[in-house]
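During the no-cost extension, the postdoctoral fellow (Dr. R.K.) reprocessed legacy sequence entries with the updated structure-token encoder. One reprocessed record is reproduced below for audit purposes.
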Amino acid sequence: MTRRTDAHPELARPDVRAPFFSTWKVGTPERQRQTVDAIARTWENRPWPADGLLGYHVYTGHDGSTLLHHSQWADEQAYEDFFRTHRQERVDEIDTAVPGIERLWLGRYRHYRSLVRDHGPAPVPGCVVIVDVEFEGPDPDRQRAWVDAVLEALQSDPEPRPGAVSAHFHLSTDGTRVLNYAEWESARAHIDALAAPGDGIGSGSDLWRRVQNWPGLTGGGGVSRYDHALGLVPR
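Re-encoded structure tokens follow.
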């Protein structure tokens, strides 16, 4: 069966070999709430659809319009089996409850590396920040090298921003994007970090300048803040 949980997902769990992210545009904060409720009803009224689905989490965007979805799969074949046999009936029921949902994109990723705050117990994240970075064309080596450079800059930063809890870097399977699922104590902590002197998160060090001017890095992607709204796991 399907069980609801308030716990945030464990982003670095080793049995998740196919983490997926997607976004829906629903239009208003009221429709965000209605869609989350419709997803919960649709899933809780059905058996858990696949042994290979390890968790499904939904987040409301601070823009008042979007939802982020994060599903954790044992492998891509488990998702393909779900897509073929169980997805459409769920989509149809949700769309009946909340007509006009725009499904913007679905990204297939692999978890690469994580950095977790190591001083004191980690708090429950008050805000999830998605940083989406795009490169010119597929290059898995470049994806990994850029993440390695970001982590080097974070770990050597003489003025780390307060309020950051963790950063979990995922590489798109097509070799063109990096997604950082970052956990913060609060949205205000992230806003203050962006507004601090310097070039956003991170100081003006040579390491950070190297990250920001990486060859092949485009202006695509962006930064979005979310609240964890719904967690669904097998009972």
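Residues 140-156 form the longest helix (17 residues). The chain has a mean pLDDT of 94. The remaining legacy entries will be reprocessed before the final report is submitted.
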